[in-house]
Amino acid sequence: MDTAPPPVHPGLPVRYFDGRSSRPREVQAALADGQLHLTGPDVDRVVEARRVQWPERTRRGPRIAQLPGGGSIQTDDAAAWDAWVRGAGHGESVVVRLQQSWRGVLVSLFLLVAVTAAGYVWGLPWAARAVADRFPDGVEQQIGDTVLDQVDDFVKPSQLSAQEQQAIEQAWQQALRAHTAAQAARGVVVRPSRLLIRHSEDIGPNALALPGGTMLLTDDMARLLQHDTDVIAGVLAHELGHVQHRHGVRMLVQVGVLGFVTSTLWGDYSGVLATVPLWLGQAHYSREAEREADAYSVTVLRDAGLSPAVMTRLFERFALFKRCGDEVLKPAPAGSASACKTEPGTGADDDDEEKHGFWGLGFASHPADEDRIAFFRDAAR
Asked: Which among 18, 128, 269, 371 could disulfide-bond with 263, CB atoms 3.0 to 4.6 Å apart, if both were Cys?
């Protein structure tokens, strides 16, 4: 029995460029059995259809198919081309079909937004944690030193007396030694840290941890807490939690990734790189990082024989500071119960919080005060 030749679908007149000459030649293009046939005056060429770079279907514009070796076939009759391709059974990709459907475009846009949001909320923190766990200590220390140099523009040497500074340092070192010993018994190494006490008129009562283990405590924080070394130890335990979990490096990774994306979109890498160290010193940690630091501070306080409930005094004093402002940082006159005469809701205005910045222990990114107070009270039971 004779085998019938494969059917050749109706041809389409196209312009053929052979890749060597700029002169087009009118030929007939036909598709059959996975091959593209080009026939015309002085032209008889067969090309495997899979080797042709077929154009995507668009609403307007010519159709140009790139041939192997640099040639091409072209036509301005887009409708005729599309009908010819479909008649030959040459299917379109899913992407092309979606591009031609408004429903497909909407679905694609929704998926893009969903994937981007998921990457920002879950993917980026996960990646930052993974990178931070493998970040070289020496590089982290260099970053911390850079940030400290820039932070030093806002702070000055402590104005507390030598006895006040010594009392804070001794109380903290005692708590740190007890915690380090307890962690060693658990098989956990406490990352190195150092405490610096500084005076600042810009950031108010605060404490913050920098990459590399440097922890800053402001004079105003000590004054706000009335030099209660147990509460100050709790504040520093919270900052040690940031050091232990390497939150500074995590945030740096996240800022770097976001900065790279931003500079890819807008084409300005230098501005992003130049501002990362200062931004890192000023930015707030995420709520998740703050909860991790709170949980770590509970462990430190327990190891030091202190009740986590001492941290509730921190929030009481901050609430008073938010109402009364700098008055609570001044020693109360002899025989006076309080130097603050302001009633709740009538004291320092909303600009006061912005003025002091609330770095580190700032409330802008922390969980609600009530939740944190409840957490420390529960931990004390």
From this structure: 269
